[in-house]
Amino acid sequence: MTQTCCDILDITPxxxxxxxxxxxxxxxxxxxxxxxxxxxxxDEDKRPFSIASAVYENxxxxxxxxxxxxxxxxxxxLELLQQRDNVEISGGFGEAYLRTTERPSILVAGGTGFSYTxxxxxxxxxxxxxxxxxxxxxxxxxxxxxFLDTLxxxxxxxxxFTFVPVVEHADDSWKGRTGWVHKAVLxxxxxxxxYHVYIAGRFEMAKTARDDFFxxxxxxxxxxxxxxxxx
Length: 231
Fold this sequence. Notes:
Layout: E1 2-13, E2 18-25, E3 36-42, E4 45-50, E5 61-66, H1 72-83, E6 86-93, E7 105-110, H2 114-127, E8 133-139, H3 148-157, E9 161-167, E10 177-178, H4 181-188, E11 196-200, H5 203-215, E12 223-224
Parallel strand pairs: 7-8, 7-11, 8-9, 9-10, 11-12
Antiparallel strand pairs: 1-2, 1-6, 2-5, 3-4, 3-6
């Protein structure tokens, strides 16, 4: 774990309620792909956010903050960042980081849980461009997806990478997958034995996915997600 002050480079809205934040550490911060950092609001108030950056991008730190006004916890962090030129952070934390393995990987993201899987995806493709990876990203509606062009580009560049967006409440214009994101995984994989699965999203989704994935042969040591430290 390291602590440092970061210059706030920019804050960019990528949807009406999700913001991409780029930070420049004033001294190096050590982390692994899939870990999170703490934004220091005060001495006793430090709030966690997944690092969306890969390790090889260590000169900058990227966060994706879902900051709807109804989510006071995250919205207060966004307000602080918008008012300041720099911020104190510490990291990396968490045990759900990318493992070095020859096993194929499945990444499952709900909402801004995508930031966690995005870091793992970039690092895995950087370390092994022929890695067998499937990313499932679920959202409530199709307008919630961001970085679609980036993901489509990665998919075209890496023939062993597959991206599957899943919309929970789709309108007639959506031609892709619908329903719960983890159910799409179950539909595509008759067995999860021999896979590594990385997951981020609401606790309810993570818990249900764990139960259903275990029933499909996934082992406990092959499932990674920060939620599982709490549920």
